[in-house]
Amino acid sequence: MSAEKRIIIGRINGLYGIHGWVKIYSYTSPITQILEYSPWQLCLKGQWQTLSMYEGKGHGKGIIARLDSSHDRDEAARLLGADIAIFRSQLPPISEDEYYWNDLIGLTVINHHGITLGTVDHLLETAGANDILAVKGNKEYLIPFVLERVILEVNLTQRIIRVDWDEDFDQ
Fold it and tell me: 160, 114 in Cβ contact below 8 A?
């Protein structure tokens, strides 16, 4: 399983109390979804370790958790800054015409004229009408993720996204 793709879903960003609890910054939506996955893969000093969550809960606008290896504040402190990942196989299955954001990272983006704009570097979630593809090539493009109007095709098998976007559009 170690060769399986890891997906980063959060980060340990603080300590909470004296009994080994940590504060979690969750990348999941809703943020409490991170608590549904176990075990977690934590990257500590460049090494991945598998740790199970003993308990976790929403706390105010954030998340707190205690991992099975943390029984006091000192043990929890060694986890500070660790990325939290899960294996791709831990995500719920989806239909053929669906994809997770993580599936789009690294795909080649080609416009409607057949010009390669670059590859998907990351996605930006907005509070507005649509999310944004951040594409890096000769320059950076911020392309609205609007299906059928801007995003014409997502083909995971061919690893391409076809877009209605001119190469000379400015951000």
Answer: no
SS3 label, residue 119: strand
Domain closes at, from 68, 89, 110: 89
- Both 70 and 19 in a single domain? yes
Give per-residue pLDDT as tens, 98-121. 888 889 999 999 999 999 999 999
Q: What is the largest distance, in Å, between two alpha-carbon atoms of the chain?
A: 60
Residue spans of the chain under pLDDT 50: 1-2
Residue 46 · residue 112 · CB < 8 Å: no
Contact in structure between 49 and 91 (CB atoms under 8 Å): no
Strand (E) or helix (H) holding 91: none
Inside any domain, residue 170: no
Q: What torsion, rounded to 10 degrees, do the Cα atoms 48, 9, 86, 56 define?
A: 100
The answer as to whether 169 is a domain residue is no
With respect to residue 46, please indicate whether it lies within any of the assigned structural domains.
Answer: yes
Three-class DSSP category at 3: coil
Residue 1 confidence (pLDDT) = 43
- Domain, as residue range, for 10: 6-89
